[in-house]
Amino acid sequence: MEQILVYFFTYKEAIFIIALSVFLGIEVISHVPSVLHTPLMSGANAISGVIIIGGIILVGHTDASKLSLELILGIFAIIFATLNVVGGFVVTDRMLEMFKKKKK
């Protein structure tokens, strides 16, 4: 428990910035008009693509013989970013289907 408190005390500025950015992001995203959701989703897909590449690099540089924090974080980054990219493409495809003319 003492190590956790020392960690929080050592990195209190970084933890504060991350917490503040989470609340700021929630506030900004909640006020985005519906028209801008598709461009924002495209940007999120691009960022997730970069996260996938970073996760692959991280997993590639870890020692696979032992289970380490880097290996676990890299695998989670790859899985979650891939889910985000695939979900973004599915939602974008559904939105584009709405604009196609219906066949009679």
Strand content: under 5%
Unreliable segments of 5+ consecutive residues? none
Largest sheet: none
Find the count of extended strands (DSSP E, 2+ residues): 0
Number of helices: 4
Helix percentage range: over 70%
Category from helices, strands and their pairing: mainly alpha
Domains (count): 1
Q: How much is the average pLDDT?
A: 84
End-to-end distance: 67 Å
Describe the structure.
With 104 residues, the chain is mainly alpha-helical. The protein is built from four helices and no strands. It has one domain (2-29, 38-98). The radius of gyration is 19 Å and the shape is flat.
TL;DR of this structure?
With 104 residues, the protein is an all-alpha fold. It has 4 helices and no strands.
Describe this protein with a few key phrases.
4 helices, 0% strand, 104 residues, mainly alpha
Helix and strand arrangement:
Elements: H1 2-10, H2 12-30, H3 37-60, H4 69-98
Helix pairs in contact: 3-4
